[in-house]
Design goal:
Strand order of the largest sheet: 1-28-27-26
Shape: elongated
Structural class: alpha+beta
Radius of gyration: 27 Å
Largest sheet: 4 strands, antiparallel
Helix content: 10-25%
Number of strands: 28
């Protein structure tokens, strides 16, 4: 049995740091990044700022309705009713202040320079720059009944905005999602979607990241996860829709992308954690992650990626893709060899060596040489870029396929020492020393004593440069 594809680390527990259990609720806790957690402590009439890496707690004796810490800097914003202020904690100075004419119902740091403010009527962006005052982005869509706002996000390019909330419905809690196009200055009709986000992922065959609008929906008999590319013609847009499986009384409370790994994490009110691979839409993992609702969550900015969550007991947990185990898990538990190969290639992961070797052999035996050299060139951690592969390609069509393989590698990356040595032998046999000079200058070849020995009989100064 393979280990799980998701790993987790408990970063801290708020109660162990002196935060009262009664203060660990949605209205009091804010998480602007994986670096800081801010808690409004009602019993102490102040605000606690927790550094998740050091577990250091700074308490400020300020009676406020809400506080949101800057994602990275020691800057904090306070709200008393509709009066908002931003302070620099290191300089102990007030940076900015504003008063809203409408009731503020939700706010958060949208990025390092912008606070998003949601009132009962509109959505505003407040820039840290200069003396800028909040700028209205769009009006909220009309809705019959009260809506609790729990989510606001922007796409990476800033061209799409989404506002998410929940409301009581005839058959339980329903989602209320509004999506706004900045370029078109228009909103889509509200969607019954509990959770949503924008992912920024480079799809296979594309040269740059795509903006993917991801959301849950309850249209039909069962909930679904939908992934739709926006900002491109509809006929060429990426589109996936897959089923979600959870109890009928449960519903998603958060959806967060891991853009670097092409994953989506979905959290439900009952404490379930789902992991989806975006390009295939396939569910890789689903299990109970907490006995209590994880009511606050955010992307983790570190190298491991993943998400950071806060549950009702005060546990702060980092969930992330276990890169050592995910490929074996997909092979053994899902029996999805195609997904294992594709994911290993994209993320440059070990765990699928047997699959790559077998596929390479099949392609070579069926004389699908272009596909074979493509597979070898893109194999994770260069597992097929070996002397055995080179020797095999030498025997095909008088070495023509080997030259195509080297040309493919030169376009994409740096050759390893084995490849560099073999390419140099081929080129020197054709008096191509100038090509080698160019490739060395472009750092396309890996220097080694063996390469120096080979070059010494052709160009001593060039040989000395690679010893």
């Amino acid at each position: 049995m393979a280990k799980l594809p998701v790993a987790f680390t408990e970063l801290l527990n708020l109660t162990a740091l002196g935060v009262a259990q009664s203060d660990i609720v949605f209205k009091n806790v804010s998480v602007s990044s994986s670096k800081y957690i801010t808690v409004r402590e009602e019993g102490k009439n102040g605000v606690a700022i927790i550094d998740t890496s050091t577990k250091n707690v700074v308490r400020l004796p300020v009676p406020v309705d809400s506080a949101v810490m800057h994602p990275f800097s020691k800057v904090i914003a306070f709200r008393n009713q509709n009066s908002l202020q931003i302070f620099n904690l290191e300089l102990r100075t007030k940076m900015k202040a504003t008063n809203m004419d409408q009731n503020v119902v939700f706010w958060k740091w949208l990025d390092a320079k912008t606070i998003a403010i949601v009132t009962d009527q509109s959505v505003y962006h407040w820039s840290l720059d200069g003396d800028a005052q909040p700028t209205k982005m769009f009006d909220r869509a009309a809705y019959e009944g009260a809506v609790q706002i729990i989510n606001y996000r922007s796409s990476a390019d800033g061209k799409w905005l989404l506002l998410g909330g929940i409301a009581p419905g005839n058959a339980g809690v329903v989602g209320v999602l509004q999506v706004y196009s900045v370029d078109l200055k228009a909103s889509q009709p509200t969607i019954d979607a509990h959770a949503a986000c924008f992912a920024n992922v480079t799809l296979d065959g594309r040269e740059k990241p795509s903006v993917l609008f991801c959301f849950t929906s309850k249209a039909g008999p069962a909930p679904r996860l939908n992934i739709i590319e926006v900002g491109v013609p509809k006929e060429s847009a990426f589109n996936k829709s897959v089923g979600l499986n959870f109890d009928g009384n449960d519903f998603p409370v958060a959806m967060i992308p891991d853009n670097a790994r092409g994953m989506l994490f979905v959290i439900t009110k009952a404490g379930l954690l789902f992991q989806f691979e975006i390009q295939s839409g396939k569910q890789i993992f689903a299990n109970k992650a907490s006995q209590n609702t994880m009511f606050a969550s955010i992307e983790h900015e570190g190298n491991q990626g993943g998400i950071v969550t806060v549950d009702q007991t005060g546990r702060v947990i980092h969930f992330y893709v276990d890169e050592a185990n995910i490929i074996p898990y997909i092979q053994q538990n899902m029996n999805d060899l195609e997904l294992a190969i594709q994911l290993a290639k994209r993320l440059n992961l070990k765990g699928a060596e047997n699959l790559f070797t077998a596929q390479f052999q099949r392609l070579m035996q069926s004389m699908r040489y272009d596909e074979a050299i493509e597979l070898a060139a893109s194999s994770p951690q260069g597992m097929l870029r070996t002397v055995e592969t080179i020797n095999l390609l030498k025997t095909i069509e008088g070495g023509k396929i080997l030259l195509q393989y080297f040309q493919l590698l030169l376009k994409r990356s740096k050759l390893n020492s084995i490849e560099s040595l073999e390419l140099a032998r081929v080129v020197l046999a054709k008096n191509g020393i100038e090509h080698i000079k160019t490739w060395l200058k472009e750092q396309k070849l890996e220097a080694s004593p063996e390469l120096g020995d080979l070059l010494r009989n052709h160009n001593v100064s060039l040989a000395l440069s690679v010893y």
